[in-house]
Amino acid sequence: MADPRDPATEMTRLLGIMAALRDPDTGCPWDIEQTFETIAPHSIEEAHEVEDAIQRKAWDELPGELGDLLLQVVFQAQIAKDAGMFDFADCAAAISDKLVFRHPHIFGTESRDKTAEQQVADWEAIKAAERAGKAERGTLDGVALGLPALTRAVKLQNRAARVGFDWPGPADVLEKITEETAELVEARDTLGPDQLEEEFGDLMFVMANLARHLKIDPELALRRANAKFTRRFRSIEAALAADGRRPEESDLTEMDRLWDAAKAAERA
């Protein structure tokens, strides 16, 4: 008898469950109604929950979160199979073929004796050949529209940098940030909401570029800033609760003082 934790056995079981849920006669009405478009947002959400578990080092939660993410792939593949387009095997074959093709130093005849920099260069050359095969001619073609905005900004900037369209270093980007900040202030005082949004977007785009030059992941940096804000604000709430109050029963001066106390406690 096969081990119940055997990967092939469990994958077959999951595919069977998904097929049953999507059965037009006996399946779950909600699952039957779903489309590529309705499921896509869930895929993004589940990917973020995987990342959240990793950031929190919640290793006991990670198998479940990865399972939720795997379900999204299985769900989309079943929708495609129902439509006669492709199935899960095609998805697995596509990524397997891609990995083999992109690692000729492992699965082919190329030498593994390469620097990390050379491997990155070879990887980009292979990806460029793949894009050419897809008739993606433009430098920016193939950067997914559905990526988080900061991540997509960095990917667009990396593509442009490959062909020489880039600032020489962080100092030049900082100068541009000063310029964009001044334009945002001017827009606030003289322009309408659409122009103000445009100027704010320009500033955010340059901030993403600064992160790239500093070798910082802006999405990760902002998530950590969010976590820090959440942690410190909860300290404010806890301090007020100890006095039988809520934040709305306090004022900015007191909450600033409690914020500074929470910050000092973290640094102690």
UniProtKB/TrEMBL annotation:
Enzyme class: hydrolase
InterPro entries per record: MazG-like_dom (IPR004518), NTP-PPase_MazG-like_C (IPR048011), NTP-PPase_MazG-like_N (IPR048015), NTP_PyrPHydrolase_MazG (IPR011551)
Domain NTP pyrophosphohydrolase MazG-like stretches: 34-107, 173-232
Source domain of life: Bacteria
Reaction(s) catalysed by this chain's protein: ATP + H2O = AMP + diphosphate + H(+)
GO molecular function, one term: ATP diphosphatase activity
EC number of this enzyme: 3.6.1.8
Alphabetical GO biological process terms: dATP catabolic process; dGTP catabolic process; dTTP catabolic process; dUTP catabolic process; response to stress; TTP catabolic process; UTP catabolic process
Pfam families, sorted: MazG
Family: Belongs to the nucleoside triphosphate pyrophosphohydrolase family.
Protein name: Nucleoside triphosphate pyrophosphohydrolase
Source organism: Paracoccus tibetensis
Lineage: Bacteria, Pseudomonadati, Pseudomonadota, Alphaproteobacteria, Rhodobacterales
